[in-house]
Amino acid sequence: MARFSRRSFLRGTGLGAAAALTTSVAMPAIVRSASAAGGTVRLGCLFSSSGTMANIEGRLNHVVKMAASEINAKGGVNGRTIEVMVSDPASDWPLYAQIGKQMLDQDKVAALFGCWTSVSRKTVLPAVEQANGLLFYPLHFEGDENSKNVVYVNSPPASSVLPAVDYLMSEDGVSAKRFFMLGSDYVWPRTINKQLKGYWKSKGIAESAWKEEYVPLGFSNFQTLVNQIRAFADAGGGKPIVVLTVVGSSIPDFLREFANQGIKATDVPVLGLDMVEADLEGLNTEPLVGHLNCWAYLQNAKAPANTAFLKQWADYVKANNVPFKADVAIDPMVSAYDAVHLWAMAAAKANSFDVPEVTKAFAGLSFDCPSGYKLSMTADNNYVSRGVFIGSVNEKQGFDILWQSKDTPKPVPFSPYS
Amino acid sequence: MIRSLALVLWVLVVAWCSTAHAMERADLIGKVCGDAAAMGEAGRAMIDIAAEGSPDDRAWAALIPRSVMDRKLSCDATGAVIASADGSVDALTRAARSAADGSRSPLLSLKNRAMFETADAALALRSSPDPARRAAALRTLERQASNLPEQLFEAAGRDESNPGLKAQISAVAQGAALNSPDMDKRIAAIGRVASSPDRRALALVGPLTNDPAYGANTDFRRAVDAASAAIRRGITIGDMLATLYNGLSFASILFMAAIGLAVIFGLMGVINLAQGEFIMLGGYITWLVQEALRLIAPGLLQWYLIIAIPAVFLVTAAIGIVLEAILLRHLYRRPLMSLLATWAVSLFLINLVRVTFGTQNLQFVTPFYVTGGVPVIGDFIFTWNRMFAIAFAVVTLGLTWGLMRLTPLGLNIRAVTQNRTMAGCIGIAVRRVDMLAFGLGSGLAGLAGLALAPIYSVNPQMGQNFVIDSFMVVVLGGVGTIAGTIVAALGIGQINVLIEPLWGAVAAKVIVLLMIIGFLQWRPEGLFAIKGRRK
Fold first, then answer.
1. If pLDDT is split at 50, 70 and 90, which confidence band does B13 have?
2. pTM of the predicted model, to two decimals?
3. What's the sign of the alpha-carbon dihedral A239, A240, A245, A248?
């Protein structure tokens, strides 16, 4: 925490007062716009359909639309039908903030659903806070953030990454003793790795047991790095694992090189924290069988809600000619789907589309997620309790469920290890 | 009387044995269908069967680990069923039957997967009729020889009929005896371990200096010292080769991406920002050829990378020529506009491909000649997909050089590059040369896309990564020279690879760019400037 001084106190209270002022001014504006729209309420999407993130983010636009049409079919929310506005921030982080601001100020959206990378969330955050809007963020992320204007639909590290690392370190896993952290060079991998290092220190693991490397976003030539991983793995001193936090197109390029240099999951398992089914499209996964990921949903989850969700998505893809695979569902899709439902439930409970009212209504909400767990929210913060899955790559470009949590652990926003 | 008694006894023993076997087998199947701990026990039991079981048991068990790994084994209330191409059989009795409703196929945890991989290899070594399969199994087992029961290699060596393989087995067994109480065996094991000098061997031999025998026994000490020196030497050589190979491989990628641009930029001074998209189109056309082969001639599917070469070159060259004819020819005297126009073309092509094919990575068949790699020395692995790109770059270089130096078209291109006006004055059809050269440059970019398909993911965005790199190479090399492009690609590739392990990939990019800026301050014309008058 920063030191508390008189100056920061003054600045803090000043900001608080300003925020309070803007809220009181902004409130009627939203009410007005909603009535002016005549029977519809708008939701905004901030997911890129072009650039590095296009392949994985693009499909979330369609999921939000699908969830909205599902709710509309049941009569909408508070007597209004939902209208979804889609944008393309083109994987360009500042553009997320610009479009987000425009949607909040001009289009008067009741809530935003968006962002994949943490860097895009961080750029949107000031715009959302300033307009006192509401952003639903569907990705698991590094935590250490708690804005009243953001709903963190997915898990912070304490309920996603740490259970997975614990599993790998346990006797049931592979008794991992040494760790090679490889990430893209931005806030999410750096923060995750910082927390992991803190966690391992707290377990009494020596600093020589890990190595940290970063590559630029969009990096694809992993030859030298895989050589380094092999040298690290062969140095002895216990079972090595790779904690992979590279994102986007770097994931398949890394996996391809990894398999080509003859490393199997049983030699050095890779825990891909951002690895989803969509990243395996186009790869020959036979030599990759056994590598791991961890999410709050995997497509193979056994639950009636999942069967229903998968069918709904397949039908939606077919009916609307969506340019994504009908038989692939990834965690952020489900999280975006949950997010729309959570928003609709909160708005119905509050009987208002007003952000402060909706936020208040989050406490005590619960929803049957396709993952099979019952999501819940509390009055403490805008985090959502989710289940934890550890998946294992299979030869059919998907993930088998290797382990899943008994219940939904309570999310811990701020990591004690960073 | 005695004989009949013996017979009865024998029958009894056989009956007892077979029931015992049946019991053990049923128990094993039960464990395979059990929880993670039970599955681990099953894995260990199968390794024991491979080491000490009867031929009958080994043949029976051989099928199990692989079918569990591939999830072909499913458990139901009465036992387990193994599915195969010929139909499904009961795992215990091997009688044909199909799985009951509600069956599940057990999933191996990583730890158990390693165990089952070992069990599979051990059983294959002992019972596979195919010597190649046994040799492959031995290679898998070699890496963990010291954790396996000694009897496994003893029995395998005894039963092995192939003399070459027999020698290999005994060598592996020798290497496994690193901690044997017999000093001669230990020294032999050290020599054996040192014969594959990599970091894994060093991790085995290195700690032996702390062994009590190291101080007590001079022979042992000498063996350990000689072995670690040999291993270290091997590792150093391997690392040097690996660095060279990595640099060469990165250079081949840079070269492939830049050679088309060198022709276009050198000849016409057009800053073609759509160059990367031609690379991407090359990848997509390769994919289309693959899909066409899948439909027309599935037998040739493995060779699509070779068969696609002419198609890729001709189609991308044609697209380039069309682009030149309808757009760029009007912009030759306006470099800024050509920059904007080619950027627009690049965006157009990306979005066109995105709308037509979608944003996902394309699914390529991985032919055997670009799969995996072979270990050479130390930790140096020679990966085939990189080798394919290097060979491809060398062939492209040869052909481009031949075209530029030995054909009338090449002569014309060089003449126009050196002095456009003068070339026009002596009767060269400058317009036609421009068009053909642009086609050549685009076709070469398309070939780069083909060569990159086994290494990188092919998606609409892939080209954008290459534009900056290829401009870097062309500008550093000196505009319009093939030799400059080669030297610049080799230099940038090698420097990148040298810096990466020291300061990381991010710093490598920064340092290389700084070096290029510094170099261009000193030699603005690049490494190999064409002598002559430039506008």
1. low
2. 0.86
3. negative
